[in-house]
Design goal:
The chain is of the alpha+beta class. The chain is built from eight helices and ten strands. Helices cover 39% and strands 15% of the residues. Strand 1 and strand 2 form a beta hairpin. Helix 1 packs parallel to helix 6, helix 2 crosses helix 5 and helix 3 crosses helix 6. The structure holds zinc ion.
């Protein structure tokens, strides 16, 4: 990868970690990572010593899939949960972005052993299909290669896996898509819970979700009109990064 592309990817990794904070999915625990295309290396946020909202490209570390830091600021440490990321990248060549959070609503369904159903808007609700697997092999912090491998098995070829009584891991073709999927899944989980308070949940049929499902691991070009990028990520994150306060009322921000 060219130096300018590496720099751009590192900037996106930093923005992705900030975005997890903007959308209320994480404060200082959790992390987003990206595979450096064509290598066995990833960019990942270092061990939590600052809020995710403070993450800058200069802080991002480069790690190989054995967990060795190969580049980064002096003294930077790997996050405790690095094997979660590296073992998924090893098991899933189609995955280039991994997000781990303790986001509230998705975690509630992991704790309760309930499936988050696709209930709101066809393209957004594809974020919770297929039903998330569950890693339930103990309550300890997930920081060994063996635990990472068990999560990768529970994830299978899906997009999300509950870490029961802990949080969730979400994967995608890119780090940007992984963050967007985490945001959408959180919204689906919250609406599931609210719907369960007033009646039965009506699930959106899989046939309706299929167009979104079929294209999610297909690389896509950013759409440009009038020289301005029009993809979801750019639209959403540009203003979020400029003014995170607007997301305080997240329930009406879709
Ligand atoms: Zn965690």
């Amino acid at each position: 990868m060219k130096a300018e592309n590496l720099k751009a990817l590192k900037e996106e990794v930093a923005l992705s970690n900030r975005a997890l904070h903007y959308y209320g999915l994480a404060s200082y625990m959790g992390q987003a990572s990206a595979r450096i295309a064509g290598t066995d290396r990833i960019f990942i946020k270092p061990r939590s010593h600052m809020g995710l909202s403070q993450t800058t490209a200069e802080m991002i570390i480069t790690m190989d899939l054995q967990g060795k830091i190969v580049d980064g600021p002096q003294g930077a440490r790997a996050p405790a949960e690095w094997p979660l990321h590296t073992e998924i990248y090893k098991a899933r060549p189609d995955v280039n972005g991994v997000v781990h959070t303790h986001q509230k609503w998705v975690t509630v369904f992991g704790i309760a052993g309930q499936t988050i159903l696709p209930v709101h808007h066809p393209s957004l609700s594809a974020s919770v299909f297929p039903a998330y697997g569950v890693y339930e092999e103990g309550y300890r912090t997930l920081n060994t290669v063996e635990q990472g491998q068990a999560v990768a098995r529970a994830l299978g070829d899906g997009v999300g896996c509950h870490l029961q009584n802990h949080g969730v891991v979400i994967v995608a073709i890119s780090i940007q898509e992984a963050v967007l999927t985490a945001i959408r899944a959180e919204h689906q989980a919250e609406l599931n819970w609210l719907a369960m308070q007033v009646g039965e949940r009506e699930q959106i049929p899989i046939e309706t979700l299929r167009p979104s499902i079929e294209k999610r691991f297909v690389p896509k070009e950013a759409e440009k009109r009038g020289g301005i990028t029009r993809d979801n990520w750019s639209n959403q994150m540009k203003w979020a990064d400029q003014d995170p306060e607007v997301l305080r009322f997240r329930c009406v921000q879709l």
